[in-house]
Amino acid sequence: MRLHSQSFRAPVSYSTSFNPSMERVREWRDTLFFNRFPGFCDGFKEAPAICRKEVQDYINEVEKLARTLYKMIFQSLGLENKYINTDVPDIPRTLMGINYYPPCPNPSLTLGLGSHSDVSCLTVLHPDSEVLGLEINHKGTWVPVLPVDASAFVINLADQVEILTNGKYRSIEHRVLTNGEKARMSIACFFGPLEETVVAPLPVLIDGNNPPKYRATLFKDYNRNFASSRLQPNRGTLDFARI
What gap in Å lies between CA 194 and CA 215, rounded to an integer? Predict the structure, then answer.
């Protein structure tokens, strides 16, 4: 409990739900967060001794994967590496959450994680390979994400990629159900830009036939808007930047 905090800026924190002060119903989830905030903190270096080496080794390898995937997103749109390296915002901001979803006595009353889209650029998720719960919203229908094998990752595109690509790639709305029988765990790693980064549709993807769909926003302001409320369904956090 010495690590208990609802602040997204704490280097290491243990929290329940998302934003209890704003929620009508608490989410059925506990999370241990590690926050790498360049120039401010590195929670992976401050992790409890019992798991410090493990979380450091894990995030170092997952970050390599995230950077590779992030670059490939823009390569798939025909952008040259020189442009990607100079004009696409970097993703040094890292937040890792180890989630524990205990059995819920009445799963009809709450969710493990409310419906929302992630606000950063990219999420690398290691889901529970045995206990189902993660769902994505596909054309208005909630579809369960079935485990492939114990070593498989789920990659969520997040809001800043949708803004940068002017909607060519879309962030994904997702949620986590509760169940009354088995505990569930997952590890989510979120990668995003520095707070002072201005995020806007890349000019190379804008023309007369593709006008900008989003205004330029400071990531700090976008993130603050996200953290100040409940999780927003229907990818509602994007309204902050939509034109």
Answer: 18
Given the structure tokens 């823009």, which residue do they identify? 74
pLDDT tens column, 83-97: 999 999 999 999 999
Residue with tokens 């002017």: 166
Longest CA–CA span in the chain (Å) reads 56
**Cα dist. 137→21, 57, 105, 134 in Å?**
26, 32, 25, 10
> What DSSP state is assigned to residue 207?
B
Among residues 18, 29, 60, 30, which one has the least CA distance to residue 191? 60
Map residue 119 onto helix, strand or coil. coil
CA dihedral sign, ordered 5, 114, 229, 193 = positive
Q: Which two structure tokens, joined as six digits, stand for 164?
A: 């940068």
Whether 26 has a pLDDT exceeding 90, the answer reads no
* 242 close to 35: Cβ distance less than 8 angstroms: no
